[in-house]
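Bumping with the actual sequence this time:
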Amino acid sequence: MQAFTEARHAASVDEFWCVEHPPVFTLGRAGRREHIHNVGEVPVIHVDRGGQVTYHGPGQVVIYLLVDLRRRHWGIRHLVSLIENSIITTLAMHQIEATTQTGAPGVYVNGDKIAALGLRVRKGCTFHGLSLNVSMDLKPFSNIDPCGYPGLNVTQTRSLSNLSDPLLAGRDLLGRLTHWLEYDTIETFQTLP
């Protein structure tokens, strides 16, 4: 992401990277170690996004958004709102009623976090992105204060609806993101491990 962002120029197309990570905790630039309790053998990686600590693992959709904000004349807050609305409308497609919370980026269902956001802007372009909990082991979240909030509970789509396939969730969410972010042309590429 860093190399892609550094190499961008005015004509570079925006890209979304949809991935699934092996178990890992990521700690943002302002992240504080006191929000990490007992991670055992799972690595903690310092990353250059905003936000505190979160967990990524199998069964979670992670989408990195490599967007040129200058070209679109958007501020970061506008992009965050569009991302949150994309997640909310995707969840609504599966009968999950989700909301945002003032001062706490991400998406929540009944106060439990279901999707996290962490972005970085360099040269007017974003990288890093969002994670949506679909069908995963949620226990590792109990080893951290998710997003720096002690006692914050997390949930996933599998517990709230019949949406338990990360590939389906990723496809649906990419469709909503491209709609909300007003992309006209979409090319899809898939890289297998």
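The tokens above came from a reply further down the thread. Residues 76-92 form the longest helix (17 residues).
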